[in-house]
Amino acid sequence: MKARTLLWAASLVGGAAAIGYAAIRTPMGRDADRELFAAVNRDHGPRADRFFLGVTELGSMYAAASAAVALAAIGERRAAVRALSAAGATWVLGQGLKKAIDRPRPYDAEIDGLRTMIAEPLGTSWPSSHPSVLTAFTRVAARELRLGVASRGVLSSLDLSVAISRVYLGVHYPSDAVSGVLIGRAVARVWPSGRRSGNPG
Q: CA 159, CA 181: separation in Å to the nearest integer?
């Protein structure tokens, strides 16, 4: 593995850790996180409600497994296995970090006007698993499938939409979601490629 790849991954993890530390441990960071949470979580109308309710579970391991089955069904078994294994490793990593950091969910705090629009998930808040799992899956799959810039951009937009959905629906702070995306990207960076000429995720 190239040193540059490891450096990129370390930088992504460091960025996630810095965001989490600022949001959890510093008064200014906590205030900014709550203010941004309130701005995203407030009512933006029925269309936004439907959209974010519709996309949020695309970051679940169930969705990753379904996507892997679909890839295998069209003859992309290697991409399916590698993307799903990266998503699974990211989920395990995220669960370990959740237990270590033990940040309460937004609905456990006293936030005026908070809307919790889905069933309260198990586990703690930092980092958000859904965007991390989806990001790891999509970036590894994109690399294995050798997708172009436009297709990768669409997948990145999907990753971002799921990250925003977790805040919009009231189950994560913005810092949780951003950190989740960065962690997912870090895992994808270091995940072994099945193609000799594959680029980092």
A: 7
List of residues 6+ apart from 157 with CB closer than 8 A: none
Give yes or no for a contact between 113 and 42, defined as CB atoms under 8 angstroms apart. Answer: yes
Identify the three-state secondary structure at position 201: coil
pTM above 0.85, yes or no: yes
- Which residue type, as a one-letter code, is found at position 122? L
Q: Are 53 and 117 in contact (CB under 8 A)?
A: yes
DSSP state at residue 26: -
CA dist 20 and 26 (Å) reads 10
- Taking the mean position of all CA atoms in its chain, how far away is CA 32? 20
pLDDT tens-digit readout, 18-28: 999 999 999 99
Residue 90, SS3 per DSSP: helix
| Domains in the chain with CATH codes | 3-190 (1.20.144)
Counting every residue, how long is the chain?
Answer: 201
CA–CA separation, 85 vs 69, rounded Å?
Answer: 13
